[in-house]
Amino acid sequence: MCTVITNFRIDSIEDYYTPSTKGTSDLKCTVQEAPAEAILGKGQFGTVVRCRNRQHLYAVALKAVAKSNFPKQYDDAKRKKKFQSTLETLQNEVKQLRKLTGHPSIVALYEVLETSTHLYFATEICKGQELFHAISHYGAFSESDAASVMKDILSAINFMHSHSVMHRDLKPENILLTIRAEKSSVGGKKGKAMCSVKVVDFGLASDEKRSNIQAGTPYYIAPEVLNASETRGTSYGKECDIWSLGVILYIMLCGYPPFYGESDQEIYDRIKKGFETLDDRYPAEDWDTISSSAQDLIQQMLTFKPQNRPTADVCRNHAWITEQGPTIGLALHDAVMAKLVKFQNFVRRQRRWCGCWLLCFGCCVLVVVCFLTTHCKKLIDFFPSFQNKFKQVAKRLIAETLDDRDIAHLKEAFNQYDTDGDGTISIVEMRNALTHGKSKLKNIDQNFLDSLDIDGDGMIDYSEFLVATMRTKHWHTTERLRLAFDQLDVDNSGQLDRDEVRSALGGNDDALADEIINQFDVDGDGMISFEEFESMMTSDTVKDLKK
């Protein structure tokens, strides 16, 4: 039986993924035979196994859905209907995550594979537990921890809403901590900060502007969602997510929900009356020590009329979030740091390779030791950079054409690092940003900072920042590579000649232009075709595709 979830069908999942456990080598077994220590969870239709990609070595949470669970022709109508509903939920989740993967506070979907016996969903691994577990186990959060979590979630929801997607089922169970709660400040770990979080479970998400279908969980559902399902001709929009976040924030600060009851109907009745009407909305014994600013944000998020509720962007700029939360969202800062660490390691790998090459060359040709001593630095600077710099120039052209919605979170990070607001990041500002706070980039040297500064003007502009921090998915498509190639191909010949390569590199380095053409001109015609350009751009990047 084939599905419409994916067109990527394979013979065996073991050709792509192998079960693994944290801190150990790959296990010698199939996904279906994975031992308990590799299993992350089990559901009605599938098991989630920790696996490692065989080719690129990144870890994933691999959900395996057995086709043997699919209904048979002789099954009753109730079972068939239930399965169809589950299948539609899976299809919808894949559809929405393919649009949203890339934001640091939204769980990433890497790929969907199908064999003759199973469907497989490879997603990002979150090492912590649900936010619900952290609240139920450790109780109310401090205001600074709650603001930190809410800043990450609001960034994700703002990103979703900018892409016309509403989640419709936001609750603590659908928000995952990136580390275990006991290792963060929530668990009372002295000297530890709050960790970042990820929004998950997009099965009920919708990209319709308005809906009249009831979706959500009783404690967190918005009044307009209840009204739309009960009153013909009414509908609701993305404002329902803000209401749900207001409830989550309330729970984080006191440990229990504002709307409760012995049954779902009792809960719904309280919701339909509105938060403003509740006499016990802020019990003194729990709320007297909580700031009026936090209560003001909750009050705004739980405004009864959806048109009067603030947007996610307005909420994340509320005074309480900016004063109590981190300067930049933890998930965003961690994501930017991870990309910069990778960029730094790439630069250093190249420099080490060239140092080794020069050492061997010097040992073999002792006669030129003096020459190497004099010109070593120049050679080290030249060889590792010739390919990297040209790739950076092409990536910069692509960065300048990206949809603002896809990189809004990187713009936010850039603005935070640009402390004087002049539209560029100085070397000093970048050094301060990368050595401040919990996530630090170690051993920053001038060579690394210079490698970020593509045009060598001593400043890092927004496009240069994007080159180092944007995800591979932002630029690694044939369409976007073709766009960059066409801009470099000034005479529209379909080939990049020596003059065009030299011009892209600043216009004054013939040797570097010749070296690039010699390296990547496979057919020896003295020019670089699009196919040769694409091969150059994708070399050493395949392992980064899922990151």
What does this entry look like structurally?
The chain is an alpha+beta fold and 547 residues long. The protein folds into 3 domains: 13-123, Phosphorylase Kinase, domain 1, CATH 3.30.200.20; 131-324, Transferase(Phosphotransferase) domain 1 (Transferase(Phosphotransferase), domain 1), CATH 1.10.510; 359-544, Orthogonal Bundle (Recoverin, domain 1). The chain contains 21 helices and 12 strands. The strands form 4 sheets. Strands 1, 2, 3, 4, 5 and 6 form a 6-stranded antiparallel sheet that branches. Strands 7-8 form a two-stranded antiparallel sheet. Helix 3 runs antiparallel to helix 5 and helix 12 (369-399) packs across helix 16. The chain is globular. Residues 350-387 and 541-547 have low confidence and may be disordered.
Structure in a nutshell:
The protein has 547 residues and is α+β, with helices and mostly antiparallel strands.
Layout of SSEs?
Blueprint: E1 17-19, E2 39-42, E3 46-53, E4 59-66, H1 77-100, E5 109-114, E6 118-123, H2 131-138, H3 143-162, E7 175-177, E8 197-199, H4 223-230, H5 239-254, H6 264-273, H7 284-287, H8 292-301, H9 312-316, H10 319-324, H11 330-364, H12 369-399, H13 408-417, E9 424-426, H14 427-434, H15 446-452, E10 459-461, H16 462-469, H17 472-475, H18 478-488, E11 495-496, H19 498-504, H20 510-520, E12 528-529, H21 530-538
Antiparallel strand pairs: 1-3, 2-3, 3-4, 4-6, 5-6, 7-8, 9-10, 11-12
Helix pairs in contact: 3-5, 4-6, 5-8, 11-12, 12-16, 12-18, 12-20, 18-21, 19-20
